[in-house]
Amino acid sequence: FPVENIRNFSIIAHVDHGKSTLADRLLELTGTIDKTNNNKQVLDKLQVERERGITVKAQTASLFYNCEGKQYLLNLIDTPGHVDFSYEVSRSLSACQGVLLVVDANEGIQAQTVANFFLAFEAQLSVIPVINKIDLKNADPKRVEKQIEKVFDIPSDECIKISAKLGTNVESVLQAVIERIPPPKVHRKNPLRALVFDSTFDQYRGVIANVALFDGVVSKGDKIVSAHTRKTYEVNEVGVLNPNELPTHKLYAGQVGYLIAGMKDVTEAQVGDTLYLHKQPVEPLPGFKSAKPMVFAGMYPVDQSEYNNLKSAVEKLTLNDSSVTVHRDSSLALGAGWRLGFLGLLHMEVFNQRLEQEYNASVILTTPTVPYKAVLSSAKLIKEYREKEITIINPAQFPDKSKVTEYLEPVVLGTVITPDEYTGKIMMLCQARRAIQKNMVFIDQNRVMLKYLFPLNEIVVDFYDSLKSLSSGYASFDYEDAGYQTAELVKMDILLNGNIVEELVTVVHKDKAHSVGKAICERLKDSLPRQLFEIAIQAAIGSKIIARETVKAYRKNVLAKCYGGDITRKMKLLKRQAEGKKKMRKIGNVEVPKDAFIKVLKTQ
Ligand code: GDP
Ligand code: MG
After folding, report:
1. Higher pLDDT, residue 540 or 24
2. Which residue, among 166, 162, 157, 156, has the nearest Cα to 174 in the 3D structure?
3. Tell me, what DSSP letter sits at residue 20?
4. Residue 43 alpha carbon to ligand 1 centre in Å
């Protein structure tokens, strides 16, 4: 393929605006997949994606398209829309020259539309605005055009109006890709320079690296070197994703495809790495900003004998998702485990779900925490901490106030887009979350864009749910990292009959300790089954109790309903009760169902 007939592009949008559906239509139009009535989000291959109806992992597909007698190769990279996965988006963009910015004709510009646009803009990509869902009864493409002009400064006549669902006008999207996105700037005569922009792990074939070739050619049998590790490999297979792997003889500069080269160890295929030919070293391509975890949680096997299985599952999964950071950790109560860093709570849930579904692992997760910092008073520099300013990703290691001159908490710049009628309520919500307003603009007659500086810990868990429910689902939210600010923080323990619950140790703002402690106790009360004795649930700061709830004693007799002598039924019930016990964790003498902790975190 001549380079001038290649286009590399991505589809970006707010969640649910129709990226994956548009990708389906493009795959059909180019004959990549058969046109049937049930092609639904074919690029969403993961089980969790299908269940949640969201795209988690970017996917690549190479499309062949004939236009005015010329054949084009269009490499499409579908991306996730949710804020937690914006790292995937920026990675995908590094392999592209242009994007389709999809906006729902009914909902208009939303918070992630703005965030994703700026990622593309900063990467200096051509942006093609596509207004989707024009078939909807309440579609108002004219209004969306005006928003696009106002917020992104893109003339309204550049917008393409389509219905991805019905296929209306989708052909002109392909036309625009060819006309408005430039071919990649590459040199095939130069020695190989390939960017690893994604990688997946296959149990049988090892690492499958997704590569974009900036220079040169790579063929099966070539010896290649990783610029990152300096290790040499022999290429076993190259090919394009169509969207399933289709082996080819070679990959040329300008192409996007996959490469298998016997990389087995999870650390070998670093995303952002440059590959070159043996004895022909090149300047590595600029890598990526490494993903910055926003939320940390401890992860432990339910049963310590499962440690090694869980370890290998975590390693494999982190290869598929290099934005998760992993440190070994251990706890007296929970044994050996890890402290994992995630981009957000959804990311954490998805990771957990993938562990359970794809690797059949069962884990205990501790309360998520944001990365706090503490500046230690130098006179009392404590041996266990090497530096003056430390980052605390484990609340159990939160240093006492007597050793600290200042605590710091991470902050983010949040964008809220909402119909005007909810502005008042939203401002109150933001205030309750200790946020500071930075900006407010109307993006059309009755839609407002608000900017707030939020402490990260105030939005990590449930801000989004609260925002959605008080705006009847109409407000959207996105945020970016904005550094640190001073904060008065305290460590809070939750006790069950006097024993600390390791899963629930948490760091909170001083002013919020009382209300957060009370809420956790109340929620824990609701999710604890009654036991043979009374259970005291307490929240404490140091030795000071700040909240308390009690669960009354109760004898649960599973056989009570079984009158008569049906022995098999009795056995079944007893067996079921025994199985139920397996999912319990014992804290002191109290049995806690494993999912109680998750419930405590979620419903606020
Ligand atoms: P993504 O999250 O951006 O990938 O969005 P999806 O492609 O998964 O689409 C989200 C929802 O919008 C799905 O229920 C689609 O069927 C629906 N949808 C996508 N495009 C259209 C369209 O043109 N018209 C209508 N009415 N619905 C659409
Ligand atoms: Mg999708």
Report:
1. 540
2. 162
3. H
4. 14
Answer yes or no: are the C-beta atoms of 268 and 224 closer than 8 Å. no
Q: For 94-140, how does the pLDDT look when each residue is reduced to its tens digit (9 = 90+)? A: 888 999 999 999 999 999 899 889 889 988 999 999 999 999 999 99
The angle, 0 to 180 degrees and rounded to 10, between the axes of the packed helices 345-359 and 307-320 is 120
For the chain, how big is the Rg over CA atoms in Å? 27
Where residue 451 falls among pLDDT bands split at 50, 70, 90? very high
* Residue 603 confidence (pLDDT): 43
Q: Whose CA is nearest to atom 25 of ligand 1?
A: 133
pLDDT band at 456 (very low <50, low <70, confident <90, very high): very high
How many residues does this entry show for the chain?
604
The response to whether 15 counts as a known ligand-binding position is yes
> Please, how many CA atoms are within 13 Å of residue 199, restricted to the half-sphere of its CB?
30
Q: What residue spans of 537-566 are helical by DSSP H?
A: none
**CB-defined site of ligand 1, < 6 Å:** 13, 15-21, 41, 55, 81, 132-133, 135-136, 163-165
pTM: 0.78
Per-residue tokens: 95: 């392999």
pLDDT, average across residues 355-361: 83
Q: Are 49 and 40 in contact (CB under 8 A)?
A: no
Instruction: Report strand pairing: 256-260 vs 206-215.
Output: antiparallel
> What's the complex ipTM?
0.99
pLDDT given at position 604:
41
The type of residue at 433 is: R
Q: Is the bond preceding 243 in cis, omega lying within 30 degrees of 0?
A: yes
| Closest atom, ligand 1, to C-alpha of 132 | 23
232 is in an annotated binding site: no
In whole angstroms, what separates CA 357 from the centre of its chain?
Answer: 17
Spatial contact of 503 and 364, defined as CB atoms under 8 Å apart: yes
Q: What is the DSSP secondary-structure string of 290-345?
A: PP---EEEEEEESSGGGHHHHHHHHHHHHHH-TT-EEEEEEETTTEEEEEEEESSH
Ligand 1 pocket test: pick from 25, 86, 165 the residue with the most ligand atoms within 8 Å of its Cβ.
165
Q: Which of 10, 14, 16, 82 most suits a substitution to test ligand 1, by most atoms within 8 Å of the C-beta? A: 16
Ligand that comes closest to the CA of residue 135: 1
What percent of the chain is helix, strand and coil (3-state, nearest 5)?
30, 35, 35
What is the CA(409)–ligand 2 centre distance, in A? 33
Most confident of 42-51, 201-210, 401-410: 401-410
Structure tokens at 595: 């999912």
Q: What average pLDDT does range 340-345 have in this prediction?
A: 88
